[in-house]
Phosphopantothenate--cysteine ligase (ATP)
Amino acid sequence: MSRAWTAEAFYTQLEEPPTLAEYTQQARDFVARHVAEKRKVVLVTQSGGTTVPLEKNMVRFLDNFSAGTRGAASAEYFLEAGYAVIFMSRQHSQFPFTRWYSHTTNPLFDLLEEPAEGEETVQVSQAHVQGLLPILHAYHEAKRRGRLLTVPFVTVIEYLFLLRNMSEVMDPLGRHAMQYLAAAVSDFFVPADKLSEHKIQSDDQALTLQLEPVPKVLGSLVASWAPNAFVVSFKLETDEKLLIPKAERSLHKYGHQLVIGNLLQRRKFEVVLVEPHDHTWVRLPSTSAAPPHEIERDIVAAIAERHESWIASV
Amino acid sequence: MSRAWTAEAFYTQLEEPPTLAEYTQQARDFVARHVAEKRKVVLVTQSGGTTVPLEKNMVRFLDNFSAGTRGAASAEYFLEAGYAVIFMSRQHSQFPFTRWYSHTTNPLFDLLEEPAEGEETVQVSQAHVQGLLPILHAYHEAKRRGRLLTVPFVTVIEYLFLLRNMSEVMDPLGRHAMQYLAAAVSDFFVPADKLSEHKIQSDDQALTLQLEPVPKVLGSLVASWAPNAFVVSFKLETDEKLLIPKAERSLHKYGHQLVIGNLLQRRKFEVVLVEPHDHTWVRLPSTSAAPPHEIERDIVAAIAERHESWIASV
């Protein structure tokens, strides 16, 4: 029951997702273009959660909370900082740029004006043009210049296969590669051989679920898949006392460059950048009033600077 | 451990969601306007899934699959058929009309043209105006005429409290009320007193979860909350043999008007309308080629017709 999955066993025993080869090839081509341009490339894994199917037909699944703001916002600021971005994101979670006009909070439809009698144009109402223009421009620029590649996933199994292949194909970038692992990944999964074929029947009985721990792959990523990349992982905690100790333990164990620690309750206002011999808090001026800008802007600026020094240090 | 929750115990022992009173008042005002206009009103609960938090801070939760297309699409066709719609939907799931321009599959941003030098207007590119106009018009009409009220939820507990209050406030409509319960509701939940205060720690151990069955509230809805409404429930199965028998059992047990049965694999192409002495398949012409229209159009037409006869039959 409680066999602990190693990364190796996971990748050899589980079946590859059918779309893996296609996304891998797209990423390989994307990387090759940017190697030629000597551009830095960051893999942003999006914090949109990963699902754990409990049934083969996936009527029910275990999920983990995440609106996905951190990944989508960070991708925007990496593009602004001149990076090319591979955005590996949970399907239907937030997306760079379009996230500002979410269907539920600020639908673009509300900004579109129907044409006057006899006309045939639909335009954005004049009051909203100023707010929209820079976002729209940045979005179109990223597409026109081929700076943004999107790779979607749903389950934690898809996520783990993609993560391996994306980091491997980035190796030709050498130190110009960054892994920014913001995805909130499930710690548990149910292997295919234990999935129920049909929908679990509910006859007023309590349900007991047995979940197995997801293998820790950060060690393989740092040592084998992306030995030359600048690797940033995330720690989300709710208990403040555990935050820095757990981040330091993770750095020590895996040997990568940086852990971004955040507390669930204050993650929009402060994070701590934990490095091997140092830690630095990044804080917005106030947690009460409306913040002057998103904290992801400051996080990305701080990380990009460290990445630059690290490239120069060889 | 396996105490079975009755609807009564659930509503008296669990705490009301803080936003419940506000949404209830909005719905009461909405209904009053439509009673005055003698308009039919349908409550569409959206199939966007309900979450089951496993921790108080909700880092992890159990979820159930649903893109939410059925509810959002049905709401559009009910509006087209002259109904006013209370759309009770999972936050961030699909929304009537805007769903046609999803951020991931068909982003509106791709259709917007940046202004030429010296100009300050953003417009939809001419090639897409024809496709967009009828959808945009229907969306604006529903808003202008006050025909669409949106009520969001996330957890299964919020869903159950809202469902009770929404059906109760619709009672003044008499037979002009319809309940169209398309939400895919979790069958299990973890009561607040068993929720972990902090994030469940994962130390390479298997995780065992104990979940309790969600009370069946359809009986209370039919008998007490909405005794005059036309009530349509949904049955989603993966095993074809169980579909009609389970739908019939549900009708017999709760005494409502209609069950829409669908198989997970074929739900976009066929459903079966199960009534007390009859069942009728609704099928799109072909499951292979692109369907001529969405099946929800045919479902809503069939249901609206039955609702009309049922109103006339008193």
Remarks:
- Chain A touches chain B through 70 residues (CB under 8 Å).
- The first strand of chain A starts at residue 41 and ends at 45.
